[in-house]
Design a protein that fits this description.
about 170 residues, alpha+beta, Cell Cycle, Spindle Assembly Checkpoint Protein, Chain A, three-stranded antiparallel β-sheet, two-stranded antiparallel ribbon, about 35% helix, HORMA_dom, HORMA_dom_sf
Length: about 170
């Protein structure tokens, strides 16, 4: 018997967790922080990297929570991880497009969505992305910018949407 499709809330939780894992991996792969700051882990049956720095982890966790809150409200078009130089100029962008997420009524958010992905197919999708992400250095080369880079997590909302009331201020990590 095939696995049931996931619910809206399961999709939001899955994407939120994936975004958090992807941010850590992007920071490692693009060498935004020293490699020694990261520990190798396994998620979605693939190797990933996670920061060991408490303040950085809090920032990433807070950003992922804000993404999840907005996903739950259906307002997000894209989540963008921007790598910036010391003048705040964007050097690279990693864009996670979630504009095609299904919209459901509030009372249906815990009910399986007909035609939605199963949790197995969602995990395979996440694994595929992370494997490609870990190979990015070979495709676009290393960034040799030393200590002069930072990053930001930016939410692009759907046209006509405003951020939800439950905004969380996330302070930057230097």
């Amino acid at each position: 018997m095939s696995e049931d499709p996931i619910s809206f809330n399961q999709m939001v939780a899955g994407i939120t967790e994936f975004i958090e894992v992807a941010i850590h991996t992007i920071l490692y792969v693009r060498q935004i922080y020293p490699a020694e700051l990261f520990v190798r882990r396994k998620k979605y049956d693939t190797p990933v990297f996670q920061s060991r720095h408490p303040a950085l982890n809090d920032y990433i966790s807070g950003a992922a929570k804000a993404v999840g809150d907005e996903l739950a409200h259906g307002t997000v078009d894209k989540v963008v991880v921007v790598i910036k130089d010391k003048e705040e100029v964007a050097l690279e962008r990693f864009i996670f497009s979630v504009e095609n997420m299904v919209e459901v009524e509030a009372f249906d958010k815990n009910v399986s969505v007909e035609g939605a992905m199963t949790s197995t197919s969602l995990i395979q999708y996440f694994r595929s992305f992370l494997v490609k992400l870990c190979m990015i250095e070979a495709q676009i080369g290393q960034m040799y910018l030393g200590d002069n880079v930072s990053f930001a997590v930016v939410l692009e909302l759907k046209d006509g949407e405003a951020p939800s009331v439950s905004q969380t201020k996330v302070s930057a990590v230097e």
